[in-house]
Structure to design on (524 residues):
């Protein structure tokens, strides 16, 4: 791949939306009473996400995240918390699969209108080494939802 | 040169060494032997049979832990490593200690990323069986005071000394015979050689008393139904078809390095590192880890408060600059530095000042993208 292409891809990767969530993360902190707490690390690079979820039946009533890592991992976590709050397990599964497809380059941002701000992460698909950063929070959420009705 | 040597081997000597009576196998045997002699010469090993080919440093260290360690370490013994070490010179000893019920002890560091020699002195005693340390830290570039460590360990204990040479063999002259350690492991791919080849050097006395590490073809003398006797050095530790082609490739690499001169290599790196230190120090919010450049080899490890090392690595990649971002396979060190990751720029014979220009402008570009983020 030629140099200018890579530079353009990098500009496309670091969307204002991502930097905004990195700078001012939403739902960052801890819940007073959580039904599930998950810690997830990316051992290869050291990104860390802690996720706390409070359920209302099968729906996510509230959730907060903590941790440290690169802009992609932290912005993805921040956007995720906004998007899944109040949604049912089934709805979350649909979003999660759509986001995964977007990250793996199976679909493009235009196909995934339901993903909202998460579409700003579509540039990550061109950086295979960074996909795991974007999916870290989602893997934590999947783990938190495990065994729920 | 290395690629030519590989091609030449596969075109003219592609057979299993030490096997056939046919000319091709004889030629393969000769090439493999000559490669060993050449690499031994490069590393100052007079007795080239004491150079065992391995897949790299990791396998060399595992060989010592699996063979000498399993045969000689007992419950209650102590194994010492340092917090500066790569996982490859940390985990094999940790696992060995757990298997044997030995005590695994980690030597602490000074604030600027050196082995704390006073701490080390306090750890050594008659129970210490193994002291494993790196000649040069892969994460920070710290050149450890090998001679002082050897003297201290010999004086205060009967421990064997195992040196991880992955970052010293490529960067400055090393003469194993005068190092005073019992084992020294290195990797070919870090010194212009092919991937998947490296070696372990040991003293003949040690290697001869050690049991085999892996068993199979080539490493045997006689196989009876009820017992087997072992081949002589170095074959005792080289079970199976050897990576002869890559050994030949590595021999070509050390020939190339010798033609440049290892003194010239270290001088070249030093001047690049000093320049990089100067240029990087001038960047706001950039922190460099480890001792001053004169006491380091090959790398500058740093963080910038508002740009994560991963983001930095991705942006630099776009500028054609490859840096490592992460924990550098040294998580115990990262915990002590209280960082999750650092960015690390490495220098070698093929780098020049223009690479530092590209590095600096890439970092400035990253700052521009992330500039308004306050950590």
């Amino acid at each position: 791949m030629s140099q200018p292409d890579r530079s353009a891809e990098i500009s496309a990767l670091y969307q204002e939306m991502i930097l905004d969530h990195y700078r001012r993360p939403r739902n960052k902190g801890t819940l007073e009473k959580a039904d599930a707490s998950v810690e997830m690390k990316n051992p290869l690079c050291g990104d860390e996400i802690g996720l706390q979820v409070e359920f209302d039946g099968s729906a996510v009533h509230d959730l907060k995240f903590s941790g440290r890592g690169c802009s992609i991992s932290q912005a993805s976590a921040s956007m995720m918390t906004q998007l899944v709050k109040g949604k049912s397990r089934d709805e979350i599964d649909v979003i999660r699969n759509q986001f995964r497809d977007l990250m793996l380059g199976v679909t493009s941002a235009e196909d995934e209108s339901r993903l909202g701000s998460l579409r700003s992460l579509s540039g990550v698909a061109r950086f295979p080494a960074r996909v795991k950063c974007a999916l870290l929070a989602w893997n934590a959420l999947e783990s938190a939802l495990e065994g729920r009705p | 040169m290395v690629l030519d040597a590989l091609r030449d081997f596969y075109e003219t000597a592609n057979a299993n060494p030490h096997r056939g009576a046919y000319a091709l196998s004889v030629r393969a045997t000769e090439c493999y032997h000559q490669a060993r002699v050449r690499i031994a010469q490069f590393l100052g090993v007079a007795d080239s049979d004491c150079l065992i080919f391995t897949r790299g440093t990791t396998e060399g260290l595992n060989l010592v832990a699996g063979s000498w360690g399993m045969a000689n370490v007992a419950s209650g013994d102590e194994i010492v490593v340092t917090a500066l070490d790569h996982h490859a010179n940390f985990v094999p000893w940790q696992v060995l200690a757990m298997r044997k019920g030995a005590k695994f002890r980690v030597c602490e560091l000074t604030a600027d990323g050196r082995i704390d020699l006073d701490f080390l002195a306090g750890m050594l005693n008659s129970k210490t069986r193994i002291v494993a340390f790196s000649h040069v830290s892969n994460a920070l570039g710290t050149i450890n005071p090998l001679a002082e460590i050897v003297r201290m360990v010999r004086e205060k204990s009967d421990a064997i000394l195992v040196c991880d040479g992955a970052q010293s063999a490529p960067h400055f002259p090393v003469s194993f015979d005068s190092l005073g350690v019992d084992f020294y492991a290195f990797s070919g791919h870090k010194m212009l050689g092919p991937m998947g080849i490296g070696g372990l050097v040991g003293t003949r006395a040690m290697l001869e008393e050690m049991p085999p590490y892996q068993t199979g073809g080539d490493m045997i003398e006689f196989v009876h139904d009820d017992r087997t006797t072992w081949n002589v050095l170095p074959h005792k530790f080289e079970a199976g078809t050897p990576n002869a082609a890559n050994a030949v490739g590595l021999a070509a690499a050390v020939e190339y390095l010798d033609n440049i001169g290892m003194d010239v290599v270290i001088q070249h790196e030093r001047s690049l590192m000093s320049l990089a230190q100067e240029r990087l120090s001038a960047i706001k919010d950039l922190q460099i880890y480890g001792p001053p450049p004169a006491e380091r080899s090959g790398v500058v490890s740093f963080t910038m408060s508002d740009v994560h090392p991963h983001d930095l690595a991705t942006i630099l990649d776009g500028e054609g600059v490859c840096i490592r971002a992460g924990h550098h396979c040294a998580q115990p060190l990262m915990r002590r530095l209280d960082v999750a990751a650092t960015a690390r720029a490495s220098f070698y014979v093929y780098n020049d000042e223009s690479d530092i220009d590209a590095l600096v402008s890439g970092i400035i570009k990253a700052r521009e993208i992330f500039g308004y983020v306050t950590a």
Q: What stands out?
A: The beta strands of chain A are 36-41, 48-56, 59-68. The mean pLDDT of chain A is 90. DSSP finds five helices and three strands in chain A.
